[in-house]
Amino acid sequence: MTKPVPDTVRHSAGESPGHRWQAATRVPDPRLAAFVIGDYQGWREWSAAPVFRPQLPVIMVPVILNLGPGWRIGAPDVPWGAPQAFDSFTAGLHDGIATTWSGGDAACLQINLTPLALHHLARQDMQGLANRTCDLADLLGPDVLDLVARLRGTPDWPARFALVDGWLLPRLAPHAPENEVTWAIRRLRRSHGRAAIGDLAADLGWSRKRLIQRFRTEAGLPPKVIARILRFNRMLALLEDAKGRSLAELADIAGYCDQAHFNRDFRAFARTTPGEYLAARRPMAH
């Protein structure tokens, strides 16, 4: 029996000098659970100054349906001084920091997809999307422009989330919820990147070469890089709740063989050192 579609929308808001924001979230239709990571997120903010946010690597694919002014994106394939303008957009998995700018006022609906979900929607090799930000209509076709127009003409978040369910379901629900690559990514995610790549290949009855090629095609990045990003994400979570532990202790908990190895990964993914990251960290509204 199909579970009922959730209709509980949670609202939150905040304000600081020169800045105000509102957010709404809702669980997607249960039939999309294998393809959408976390909640749908509606977002609106007003700022007296342009807003800049770093976006660290994660193993999910953000889809931004723009409901306000546009964005400027600096991605790993774009020099820091040359951000590109986007309206609605998505980004493949990336192994370096990306950056987003808004002019101060922004509104959007964000969907976080699995790599396989975008692979189904885009019907193309995900390796070509790795470390890239893409205009959503260029990637998915004009139907998505109709969705964005309908979202902009819809006055409330519950109705907007229902529109997104209705757009995604016929495009994703007919597909199998999991294949070998999503199974392997789930294993890596559960182990925070510590599962051995050779063991994953052996459990699937594949060669390492075949595993790597399938990851590149269906996720965009090779399994070893995805494992490193998941371990890095684990370290970021530990830094948020360090409980007085040293960086060396946290690195050991996260699975790094030594702190030097951790420092190299941190600089590769965040373009800074752990100490600089902690010193510069500020509460983010979104």
From TrEMBL:
Region (Disordered): 1-23
Coiled-coil stretches noted in the UniProt entry, renumbered to this chain: none
Alphabetically ordered keywords of this record: DNA-binding, Transcription, Transcription regulation
InterPro entries hit by this protein: AraC_XylS_family_regulators, Homeodomain-like_sf, HTH_AraC, HTH_AraC-typ_CS
Gene3D superfamilies in the record: Homeodomain-like (1.10.10.60)
Annotated ranges, domain HTH araC/xylS-type: 178-280
Descriptive protein name: AraC-like DNA-binding protein
Native species: Dongia mobilis
